[in-house]
Amino acid sequence: MHAQEDDIAIIQMVLQGQQQAFATLVARYQNYVFTIVIRHVNDRELAEELAQDVFVKAYKALSSFKGNSKFSTWLYTITHHTCLSHLRKKEHETVFPGDEQMHLWANGQDGSHAGTRLEQKAQQQLLNEAVKQLPESDSELITLFYNAEQSIEEISVITGLTTSNVKVKLLRARQKLKEILQTRYSREVLR
After folding, report:
1. Does CATH number 3.20.20.140 belong to domain 3-90?
2. Which of 98, 127, 136, 174 is the most buried (most CB within 10 A)?
3. Which CATH architecture has domain 103-190?
4. Is the pTM higher than 0.85?
5. Over the stretch 13-52, which tens digit does the pLDDT of each residue have?
């Protein structure tokens, strides 16, 4: 069964009174939500707490999910708004920690042959450090597109930007990331 169809079937079960089925969605998306939250707050305990809040909010609002987008997109929107609300309350800057993985990029997208596990981890850390140096909005777009695997249209729904604006901003964010990697990490990358 396709993941989206499976998610919708589980949601229907929950809405029909089988609340324990929600645990399947939590298990399926807990790492996804945690990864997004930890990129907004640089505190593991706080990220765990906010991730729980996201699932409570999602459970309470499950009847509002219409299936027009992927469940992951809908859940990301809740996650995004939960993090922003927390950050507004605390009035501190968003930080993207270097220890979280951008696994899609680290798995050979640089065109090189697969090296040792240590080399891949080092490249991953360099990439994470470079993403941390981007402005928050650029980091978010990069994370949504590459890590969360959201389409341009889904990112548009999540961020409230037009699709053409998302494309332009994503292109600029990639260019900034490339510049950071080339200027600040060229020695490490070329080793």
Report:
1. no
2. 127
3. Orthogonal Bundle (1.10)
4. no
5. 999 999 899 999 999 999 999 988 888 887 889 999 999 9
